[in-house]
Amino acid sequence: MTNRGTLLTAATALVAAVPVATWGLLGRQDATEVPASQLDYAYQPLDISSGMETALGAGALLLAGVCAALLIRASRNGGGLDKRWWGVLTPLVMAGLLVGAGWRVLTAGVVGANIGAGLVVLVMAPAVAGLVLWAVGRGVWLATHHPTEGQWAGFAPRGA
Questions:
Q1: ∠ at Cα 155 (80, 137), nearest 5°?
Q2: DSSP letter at 149?
Q3: pLDDT in the model for residue 64
Q4: What pLDDT, in 10s, does the model give residues 33-63?
Q5: How many whole angstroms separate alpha carbon 25 and alpha carbon 57?
Q6: DSSP structural state of residue 13
Q7: Any idea what DSSP says for residue 31?
Q8: Which of 66, 70, 81, 157 is the most buried (most CB within 10 A)?
Q9: Across the strands, what pairs with 98?
Q10: What is the dihedral of CA 41, 130, 53, 63, to 10 degrees?
Q11: Could you write out the DSSP letters of every residue in 76-127?
């Protein structure tokens, strides 16, 4: 049995670690055919060495893996996590993947216009917003509706 505070902490850490892991493990996406002094940036990247970025990404990946394993175990073995909450966590993790990859594109050094940055803003940003809105809506619905009450009583899974 895992208590609710541990599950909430694990879920929060998972959602926070995924974009950091994606960002750190993707590495810089700068153009390689020109000197670094001639690169243009849509947004300046953080002033962190590539080794530190990789270490942060690996640490975040390890944290995300541990948290995911804990949450999977809690939902499979009746450890306190209702499986329906994966409908909230999964979109948030997917949004984190997009945010980590999108940040690398936005901070990529290029020559001239960064067309990828425009695509991130036009395509990825609405996708992330949609995923987050879906997760918030689903979370609110799960928190306020119980399958053993009212009109949904007949649809409750066995053992609920």
A1: 65
A2: S
A3: 97
A4: 888 788 888 888 888 998 999 999 999 999 9
A5: 5
A6: H
A7: -
A8: 81
A9: none
A10: 170
A11: HTTSS--GGGHHHHHHHHHHHHHHHHHHHHHT-EESS--HHHHHIIIIIHHH
Closest CA to 26 of 115, 99, 92, 110: 99
- Six-digit token pair at 130? 């949609």
pTM recorded for the entire structure: 0.84
Integer Cα distance of 109 and 29 in angstroms: 7
Confidence check: pLDDT of 74 > 50: yes
Q: Which helix (H) or strand (E) holds 1?
A: none
CB 13, CB 71: distance < 8 Å: no
